[in-house]
Every structure is written in structure tokens, then in C-alpha cells.
Amino acid sequence: MATGAREQVPGRPSRRAQRRLAEQQAARRRRLMLLGGAVAIAVAAVVVLILANRPSTGDEVAPVQAVTSDYGDIPRDGRVLGDPNAPVLVVEWGDYQCPACLQFKQVLFPQLVQDYIATGKIRFEYRDFAFIGEESTLAAEAALCAQEQGKFWEYHDTLFANQRGENVGSFTSARLKRMAEIVGLDMGQFNSCLDSRRHQGEVEAMRQEGQSLGVNATPTFFVNGQKLQIRYYQDLLNAIEAELNR
After folding, report:
1. Least confident of 4-18, 62-76, 138-152, 198-212
2. What is 82-244's CATH superfamily?
3. What is the 3-state secondary structure (H, E, C) of the chain?
């Protein structure tokens, strides 16, 4: 036997056979990968087709909560609530997406209405400082559209009742229109108002007015024209009482 020859081990395939087997296995893996990719693409296409062709429910708007705005015989003039002859004017600069404004509206404002507005001690005005996002601006415009029909406060209350967070779809055009339906507005008039964005300039002008007065956060309160630095509700009450005692 020649010394340079390599002896074939019985039962073990030759190198050529091993290479052929490896190539076959690699080709099989490539076919499986291609097949898997094709299946994945086909499944994705089917899902897209199902989603695109599923029957429309006709109601893609998130549910809207109705609220009862019962201010009794308290005088209202646009966005001002209370006796026009009240000696103290309290102005809130707010944003409908502002969490702190929501807390004030739901927790503290009812007490303010009962103790000071309904008793004729103060009149209260809400001003828009729409700065958090586009939904803030659109909600403020919608409130002005409701104001055109004499229902600012009903719509104002409904907006806050349906706040779900900042820029998460609380105040889309469709949802704002659903709120208008719940409030009982003339929908043709409201839709025309909102779709035309005719109050956009007014909302921006209010924001700029707030900035000129030093408003840089919401809610910010003014009592008889004086901006307050408050941390607690009692700070607002103290300022009101000070004006009443002048």
C-alpha cells in the first residue's frame, strides 16, 4: 500500500459524498426559508384583505359620556357664568386636555358654584389657553361653535367629562361632533362651524392674550385682574374673600 494514500474507513461516506450531502441539506434549508417567507407574506396579505373588506360598523368613535349641566337660574352670558353685577370676576385660563384643569372642574368647581357663583358673589369666566396640542385647539374651537348656539357651558362640561389624556384622541373631529349631538346642538350648524375652522383665529388670539398676561401653565387664575400664584384651592378662596372685603 502506498504510504501517501488515505485509507477509507468502512461505513463512513467519502469526502465527495459528505460534500454532496451538505449541499443537499443547505439547499433544503433555503427552500424551507423561502417557503416560510412566502407563507408569511401570504398570511399578511390575507390579514390585510380581511381588515380592508370587513363590514363597517358605522361607529368607529370612542364612546362619549353624557353629563348633566344644571346651573339652575344662574345667569349665563357666553362663557361667563354668574351675576353680571357680581363684585368679583374670576377668570380661569385653561386647556381642555389639561389634567389639573379637569381636577379643578370635577372636584373644586362645583363647590365654587355653590358658595360663590350661585350666591352672586362672583362671576366666573373661562378663557382658552390651548397649548398642549392640536386637540386642545380643536376642542376650544368646538366650544366656541357651541357658544354660537347658547350652549357653551353644557359643551364645556361635556368636553372635560370626556377628557382621556393628552393627544390620545379625546377630541377628534368625529368625537367632538358626537358630543355636540349629546348636548343637543343643531348639527348642521355645528358641523359647518367646526369643519370650516372659523374660530381658529379666535382661539389663537386668546392664547396670545394669555401669554401677554403672563399665563404659561394651566389652570391659571385671575381675580379682578390680578394673576394668582396658588398652590391650593384655599389660595383662590382667600383672594376672592380679600376682594369681597375691600
Report:
1. 4-18
2. Glutaredoxin (3.40.30.10)
3. CCCCCCCCCCCCCCHHHHHHHHHHHHHHHHHHHHHHHHHHHHHHHHHHHHHHHCCCCCCCCCCCCCCCCCCCCCCEECCEECCCCCCEEEEEEECCCCHHHHHHHHHHHHHHHHHHHCCCCEEEEEEECCCCCHHHHHHHHHHHHHHHCCCHHHHHHHHHHCCCCCCCCCCCHHHHHHHHHHHCCCHHHHHHHHHHCCCHHHHHHHHHHHHHCCCCCCCEEEECCEECCCCCHHHHHHHHHHHHCC
Q: Are 170 and 179 spatial neighbours (Cβ–Cβ below 8 Å)?
A: no
In this prediction, residue 230 has a pLDDT band, given cuts at 50, 70 and 90, of confident
> How high is the pLDDT of residue 20?
63
Separation in Å, CA 212 to CA 7, 130, 131, 209? 97, 14, 14, 5
How far CA 92 is from CA of 19, 53, 64, 227, in Å, comes to: 82, 48, 25, 10
What confidence tens digit (pLDDT) does each residue in 90-143 have? 999 999 999 999 999 999 999 999 999 999 999 999 999 999 999 999 999 999
Segments making up each domain of the chain, as ranges: 17-52, 82-244
d(CA 218, CA 100): 7
Q: Which residue, 87, 88, 84, 110, is CA-closest to 223?
A: 88
